[in-house]
Design a protein that fits this description.
mainly beta; 4-stranded antiparallel beta sheet; two-stranded antiparallel ribbon; 8 strands
């Protein structure tokens, strides 16, 4: 997972185990969650991507967490 400096944007890539380590999946979606600094983390259940809820914060009465899900650039490339 990659996190912005202020922790309000988090991006997760699905890794696949290969013979000598890991590599970013060429077909799984990339999940980005934007909003609050605590919580709002990308996660995956099976093939479904989602963002966890924001943690309670008394300074932010209605925290908002938005998900963006994109295909990797290699998804349409045939080998």
């Amino acid at each position: 997972m990659v996190t912005s400096k202020d922790k309000t944007e988090k991006t997760a890539y699905l890794l696949e185990r290969k013979a000598k380590g890991f590599q970013v999946s060429e077909t799984a979606t990339i999940i980005t969650c934007t909003g609050c600094a605590a919580g709002c983390s990308p996660s995956r259940l099976g093939k479904k991507g989602f963002c966890t809820p924001c943690d309670p914060d008394p300074d932010v009465p209605k925290p908002k967490c938005e998900k963006t899900e994109t295909l990797p650039a290699t998804a349409a490339v045939k080998k």
